[in-house]
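Interim report, section 4.2 (structural modelling).
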Amino acid sequence: MVRSERRRIDKAEPDNWPVDPARASEAIGAASHPAVAEASRVDAARRGRGAASKHSGRFEREWREEADDGWGSLASLENLKTNIHVERPRAIISRNDSPDIPFDRSINPYRGCEHGCVYCYARPTHAYMGLSPGLDFETEIFVKEGAAQALERELSAPGYVAKTIAIGANTDPYQPSERRYRITRGLLEALARANHPVGVVTKSALVMRDIDLIAPMARKGLAKVAISVTTLDRALARALEPRAASPESRLATIARLADAGVPVAVLTAPIIPALNDGEIETILARAHAAGAREAGYVMLRLPLELRDLFSEWLVTHFPAKARRVLALVRSARGGKLYDASFDQRMTGSGPYAQMIKRRFEVAAARLVFGETRLRTDLFEPPRRQAEQLALF
Ligand code: SF4
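Predicted structure of the assembly:
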């Protein structure tokens, strides 16, 4: 039997938080800690998912985790199902004024992401809903129905000024649920009608389904797509991003988009020390050969609950490397596992981070990547279009 353990947390004393097995493991020698065997059993039962646990988020007063009652019961856990929750947002465009982000507005058609990348920096947002940034993030998916209508209302608002909208900056707009719900497609249709610029970020080959919308927009200078390629190693990709497209599929998607005339960027993100940092040059070269003409990278980011989730995953999948990976992460983050300051969070600091930056710049310069700027002058608000149609 599996029981759900509940412990009270005294938020006033952060040191009272339960000691995470992964962090304890790191301290005493990753490979030898019993947490490694325990986490591996859970992982075997939760095959196809990224996180190894569903620990409570930071806002909960009680810490919940599944615990074996001594009968090896965690090994017999059923595979987790994905649950869909439909919500109808009144507004859909999120704004930001972060100096290190190249867009000031974005849309995320889904909350949570079934791709389940263990390093996903959107995971901590599930804590706002009382859900675990671990397994709940990849199994409790919120679908924003009516997103296209909300978008048209916002584009019609008096005084709206067009600027590139990033779709998928937080969660993947082409995750599996998009096949059925077509929220992203509805948004693209609304943006195409309004001649509004859009940048799509995804790991999924499903973006090709919408090439009939994206390619004509690209021809007008209104659309581009960024594909993130984390590694070319299938086994590593499977462990890191269990339900995302394979590396070959992502390269093929870059090639098909580029062939259709769509400007494509490759994101070598995130760079994880001692796991995929040796692949920067190869990924850039393969993506460039496939047709990518813009490139970027982001250093592994471990905000909030992600620190423990990633450590736990590391100890489960790469116990012999865990200590080295975390040491390098700390070296790139001023001695901590994460530094959220704007000038640090994307690329890190210190000699290791400098070395990664230099390698990326040299490789990108050799291949010649550029930047595609999208047009904003063609924008026509949906309201004005409706008024013009009413004249006929
Ligand atoms: S595909 Fe993107 S949004 Fe989805 S889990 Fe991976 S990193 Fe997060």
